[in-house]
């Protein structure tokens, strides 16, 4: 505490103990001073520096989980459970009462539209819907509200109602789906429905729970690079405190994207037949080579059955 005061950081012992309890700063190690001389608590050499980094981020009313994620993204060594708990807190959306996913999504959009950034986002989505022309005869602002609701609904683990709603969603976020023929629009909508389902909050929490911390930390600079290509008009909608944490919050998404891509590649290269045996020494023949049948996972089969039902 004396060293911190010398650096202009005034922290009470109670505050330091609160930070230690949740894992923001390390626990001291008690050691014996010898027979009859008692014990002392030894801290790491950089203990004061660690406390200072926490104090710089701990604004009044700031949840400790936000500070933990900020420190983690900056490369600080934190207990694994501290990082996991911070991710759970940040990615969990609790429904109120007995509402379902759609009710929670509609409530979330109402809260979003009560903010200036939310209203600017709605105006941006409305302009995309109007320019695309995917919903003729409908008020573009109403379609935009549906787009925002469906985006949050997917994040909560729900499903977009039908192909038309998914096409409107893709147009609302600025993708040129309206330029495709109608049958291609439907195929694209169904593909994106499957892809977006892999990035729900529940899925991302699972990634934050079991992915190695090195993978999560390594994904942070990837997110930073991806955010650089986001249009400036969209980046301007993100409040500064959120923008600072966005890379670490989106790190599970990048890890999940890598897993989905790896699974799709493995699925496309996995024939529905046994692995190749060792090379045969039999003479060659003119028999045609049997082509492998495309492999279909059980999840894909179940999805097809559900759609046909």
Please provide a brief summary of the model.
The protein is an all-alpha fold and 309 residues long.
Describe the structure.
The structure is a single chain. With 309 residues, the chain is mainly alpha-helical. Among the domains are: 1-58, no CATH class; 101-197, no CATH class. Helix content is 61%, strand content 3%. It has 16 helices and two strands. It has helices spanning 2-6, 13-22, 47-57, 64-73, 80-91, 101-113, 116-132, 140-155, 163-172, 182-197, 201-210, 213-227, 232-235, 240-249, 251-268, 298-308; strands at 29-32, 39-42. It has a two-stranded antiparallel ribbon with strand order 1-2. Helix 6 crosses helix 7, helix 11 crosses helix 15 (251-268) and helix 12 (213-227) packs across helix 14.
How many DSSP E strands?
A: 2
Rg estimate, integer Å: 26 Å
Task: Describe the strand arrangement of the main beta sheet, using strand numbers.
Answer: 1-2
Reported for the largest beta sheet, the result is: 2 strands, antiparallel
Helix and strand run: HHEEHHHHHHHHHHHHHH
The parts where pLDDT drops under 50 for at least 5 residues are 273-309
- How far apart the termini lie comes to 67 Å
Structural class: mainly alpha
Please state the overall shape, judged from the principal axes of the Cα atoms: elongated
Mean pLDDT: 80
Number of helices: 16
**How much strand content do the residues show?**
under 5%
Helix content range: 55-70%
